[in-house]
Write a structure and sequence with these properties.
Elements lengths: L3 E6 L14 E2 L2 E2 H10 L6 E7 L5 H7 L6 E6 L4 H10 L5 E6 L7 H11 L7 E3 L14 E4 H10 L3 H6 L2 H5 L6 E3 L16 H14 L8 H10 L18
Parallel strand pairs: 1-4, 1-6, 4-5, 7-9
Antiparallel strand pairs: 2-3, 6-8, 7-8
Length: about 250
């Protein structure tokens, strides 16, 4: 089996909700909730937190170091996120990289595994994601899988600021140059939003964790959707939040 590493980008410098990755959900910071869920993947061998060299992000290092034997932390450029990401991947000798972000506390390890398994169906595959082409997963369940050699080629050849800032966006801008597939959910759940960008998003995440975690710490997307269907008023908590292109 190939070596598969999940790299989670994290920084404290969010403009809309500063230090959001330290906000607690059932007694543990959002970032650690994301890590815990990534570790539950059947296929991920190691998790790397890729943060910046900014002094403020020292507290991310302090939080993560020694947290788990399969978790490490690296530091790099705040602006050139592609370089930070590539250096983090290069340091692990990985074959396949799973990309996740630090503000998605509802990240589902089963979705990660489905994306990896779809990727592994073709030895020539460059990239698999549930947010390229047709979007059928909620915002906040985003996952990407990219071959290390493809990531390395992006690092070597792309020069546009947008490509350096958003890591894999070059694949989406020029899909004809890559072998890729979209991971699709049987039911279109794209109307839901479970990421944390603003205070309203955090309030919804709190509700989800308070409702589901005590009974089942390993709750999955299906459990969240069942909750939202039982309590449709919850979707109103953050329905006014506009999605932004994030930089980590």
């Amino acid at each position: 089996m190939p070596n598969i590493v999940c790299i989670i980008q994290a920084r404290t410098g969010s403009t809309r909700l500063p230090n959001k990755i330290f906000l607690p959900l059932q007694g543990k910071p959002i970032l650690l909730r994301v890590i815990d869920r990534a570790l539950q993947s059947k296929h991920v061998d190691h998790v790397v937190i890729a943060t910046t060299v900014k002094p403020n992000d020292e507290k991310i290092v302090d939080l993560v170091k020694n947290y788990h034997p399969r978790v490490s932390v690296t530091r790099g450029s705040e602006e050139d996120v592609l370089d930070r990401y590539y250096q983090a991947a290069k340091g692990t000798s990985t074959d396949i990289v799973v990309r996740a972000t630090s503000d998605n506390p509802c990240l589902d390890p089963e979705v990660i595994d489905k994306a990896i398994e779809l990727f592994l169906t073709d030895e020539k595959m460059d990239y698999v994601s549930n947010n390229i082409g047709e979007h059928t997963y909620p915002r906040g369940l985003d996952i990407e899988v990219i071959r290390f050699t493809t990531l390395e080629a992006l690092w070597k050849t792309t020069t546009e600021p947008i490509d350096r800032e958003h890591v894999t966006i070059h694949v989406k801008r020029f899909p004809e140059n890559y072998t890729w597939k979209t991971l699709k959910n049987p039911e279109d759940l794209s109307k839901y939003r479970f990421t944390v960008d603003e205070d309203a998003d955090y309030k919804l995440a709190e509700q989800i964790y308070d409702e589901l975690f005590p009974k089942n710490p390993n709750f999955r997307l299906k459990d969240i959707i069942d909750l939202m269907k039982r309590r449709p008023e919850l979707i109103k908590i953050n329905e006014q939040v506009e999605q932004q292109n994030k930089k980590y």
